[in-house]
Amino acid sequence: MAAGDVVNGILIGGGLKFFRPAAGVEVMITLMAGDNVASNFLIYDGVNQSIITQASYAPTKINADPQNMKFPINNTTYMAFGPSALNFGYAGIQLK
Question: Are 94 and 7 in contact (CB under 8 A)?
């Protein structure tokens, strides 16, 4: 893939899941989606994690609006979803 390409995916149920770009790749996440309020979107570095938002919350109730965001990730600070057994989706654009 190259800079400017669309990046998206669906992760199907069962515990904590990750979207981690390859080394040297950066992606701007612009949308996250999940099945219900138990769908946590996290920033993760392999050890530490922090909730960015939850899929079903209105943007005023938690940290970010999952359908209107600019969330850059790379190989060292990336995205995690979970821990519910539900489905998650994301979309974005590769930056480099």
Answer: yes
Nearest-angstrom CA–CA distance, 93 and 39: 22
What is the pLDDT, as a whole number, of residue 31?
A: 83
- Whole-model pTM: value is 0.79
Going by C-alpha positions, the residue among 38, 24, 40 that lies closest to residue 73 is: 24
What residue spans define the domains of the chain?
A: 6-94
So what's the pLDDT on residue 60? 45
Q: With left for phi above 0 and alpha for psi between -120 and 50, is residue 4 left, alpha or beta?
A: left
CA 73/CA 27 separation, integer angstroms: 5
Q: Measured between alpha carbons, how far is 84 from 19 in angstroms, rounded to an integer?
A: 16
Q: Domain 6-94: give its CATH architecture.
A: Sandwich (2.60)
* Residue in 10, 18, 28, 13 with CA at minimum distance from that of residue 89: 10
Determine the Cα–Cα distance for residues 60 and 3; give it in Å rounded to an integer.
32
